[in-house]
Amino acid sequence: MIFDKRVSGVLLHPSSLPGKYGIGTLGAEAFRFVDWLCDSGQKIWQMLPLGPTDWSHSPYQAYSAFAGNPDLIDPDLLVSEGYLLPGQLDGTLEFPIDKINFKTMVPFREKLLRAAYKQFIIRNGFDTPEYHQFWDQHWWWLESWSLFDACRTHLPGTDWGEWEEPLKLHEEAALLAHYHKYHETVRFCRFLQYLFFRQWFALKNYANNKGISIFGDIPLYVSYNSSDVWSNQKLFLLDDKQRPNLVGGVPPDYFSKTGQLWGNPLFDWDKIQQQGYDWWMARIHFNLRMFDLVRIDHFRGLESFWAIPAGEKTAINGIWMKAKGDEMLQLLQHQIGSLPIVAEDLGLITEEVDQLRKKYNLPGMKVLQFAFSDGADNTHLPHNYRHDFVAYTGTHDNNTTNGWLQSIKKGEMLKVQAYLGIEQPDAWSLIRKAEESVAQLAIIPMQDILCLGAAARMNKPGTTKGNWIWRMDPSSMKKEYGERLLGLTRLFGRNL
Q1: What is the mean pLDDT of the chain?
Q2: How far is 295 from 7, CA to CA, in rounded Å?
């Protein structure tokens, strides 16, 4: 097991933090949140993937499996580091407090980041020992990512599959030619990553020193329009035009009657095996340096995966194909020993998937919002838990718990009332159940702690509008919530 004692934590993506720059950042509010976690008796800060997002702004659809999201870079820290003058922040726009407006936030921040870059060049930043150390640690992915991002910037409206043939095929002469052509944009991209990781590890070190572990997230799949697929085309199931012939998703489930059609390219596990799982090993090791533990999203895809023919409108028509996750995890275990990994094992889980999780002693997930749809044998009911689970009231894909309680049908509500033994259940009554369960780790979404309704939902699977925009109103993080959470963690032995 990851933990040798009972602990609890909070799920909150950094983009949802308060702040005056249109989106949560890695700055003062993030440090303040760490302090709040510590004061509330929490040991874990769980967050979503931190990569640079595409047009959907979904953390699960990133342009890179390794790069950080420049949207999270904090402008105030750029002032304290000398990359911006205080006066350059005087024209800060009035952004909404409770949501992200990407249309206004992105160009505003772009202007600030380019101003910081000019100062970085004036200070010969690329020639400093700090940058050289950063480059020595990250060149192996940053070289390809920065060129991909530069080409993406200068070839708008296209994905890499539409680029000219030599560039599309990642031919060395074309790479060199475009590196020279877009040299300044490449350098700007590398500067942004330098800033991101500088700020990220300052935050992580602060959290670790306060006794808070950072819980990250690895999406199983990567986006087609990403530097990862572009620079590793042989590792994916692509046709002779370098387009996916099969795409990822899941068959009909709790979230959707037609399944979830993600559209991501699928791995060619035979080719990955032939290369010694190098790309996967690099990805996991990289994330275990960024985070103290990680969740593998859609873990069941490491045993077998739902393959949908490209061009399908839904995820209904597909076939199950075998993966080679067992061998990959065995290699990882040989390299690092005990695996600090949580398996996201929600949805249709077979005995083979469950055995794979247990073989490597990985905790699975249980979600209370899934617990009341049928009888007493429902595996999400706390009396059916074992210690090797992470208990949640809900996840980023669920409604908030108060929103869920307001939307469920009468029959399900009667089961909730009977199980909890109260007439008017609310988010905190479900939080109490998660905290008192035998699960070694309990994670509570911040929206539930704040007793928020459906308007604060982070994501609705199967939709592309109105997601990933929720932000926490700074006035809502009241001291009484932290004290109540501390009381529960002490009562149920999660703060020893």
Answers
A1: 96
A2: 16
